Amino acid sequence: MSQRGEVLEMAVLGLLQEHPRHGYELRKGLTAILGWGRALSYGSLYPCLARMSRAGWIAEDEASTVRPGRSGRRGRIVYELTPAGRSHFEEFLADTGPGTWEDEAFGVHFAFFARTDAAVRLRILEGRRRRLEERLERVQSALQRTRERLDTYSFELQRHGVESVEREVRWLSDH
Amino acid sequence: MSQRGEVLEMAVLGLLQEHPRHGYELRKGLTAILGWGRALSYGSLYPCLARMSRAGWIAEDEASTVRPGRSGRRGRIVYELTPAGRSHFEEFLADTGPGTWEDEAFGVHFAFFARTDAAVRLRILEGRRRRLEERLERVQSALQRTRERLDTYSFELQRHGVESVEREVRWLSDH
DNA sequence: TTCGTCATGTAATGGGTTACATGATTAC
DNA sequence: GTAATCATGTAACCCATTACATGACGAA
Fold first, then answer.
1. Nearest protein residue to C24's C1' (by CA)?
2. pTM for the full model?
């Protein structure tokens, strides 16, 4: 569970857990959570919402949804979590399995840390740190094995990357 | 030029510019340069090499390539740069256009900074910094506009990300 | 009246991974 | 002998972006 591809879906569920939102509004939050340089594209977002709606995780909030043409207001489709969607997201939050520590999945877990059980939070953080340390080791041992010195710049790029996330982990450990 | 999708290709050219290599060996360097968490997959690498070979940027180094079955050694296909490939890569290195500063393309530029003209290097670095600053501003203004406070964690995640690259830029500025 | 933002969607494309298929060599 | 690593490749799939299509609303 929560292996791959579900990252976007989990981020949507997480945001909708806070309160109902329509797609255009969701995008802002998603763009921040996913933390790719660019904004999430509508070509990804809307098909994803349609899929999740068919899957029964989210549903239109009839009360706040506005159909275009009718009334003075703009058309917008407001989604809310279904009970199924809510429990699916809880499962995701509680999951500390291997897939959890993939970069993207970690980012989503991280974004909803405030709503995550403290014990689970720590396990995820520790797993993340272990993973980053392994990564650094692999890079360093690859460097030594081939004995073929990587460009200093590339190495520093790698090292800075690992370092910065480790700083974040430390920052989180202090709360 | 160097717009999209050429990232992997440029990294290959850059590594082959140092000395001829076969695919399996290239992967190690590519994995480090591209700096995704995971290793580059062969399903990406080999088709890419075939494409580049057809395009005339790289060619088999007959002297060191070993066909399987013949002789006591393992089969391996060693590639070298063609003159066309070499000049294509030089063009890429000299390019400081907007596309240059996309995250991935920047990583490749960065990896071959040692072989890049100092003036071009500075322009690329400055552009990168400008881009990162814009990114930070967008994040912050989005935060203020919506007045809907992002989860503290997400915000710190963003901030740390930008910060760490800024530290890298500073580090590079000092040489 | 024109431009920026709000708002939703589809179709084509791109560029990667995974899973599969194969086989030699090296280290234990 | 058997497991890990070396070495190359293909086909199916995943999941994103880009380009396109449409239209209302608010502000200059």
1. B74
2. 0.82
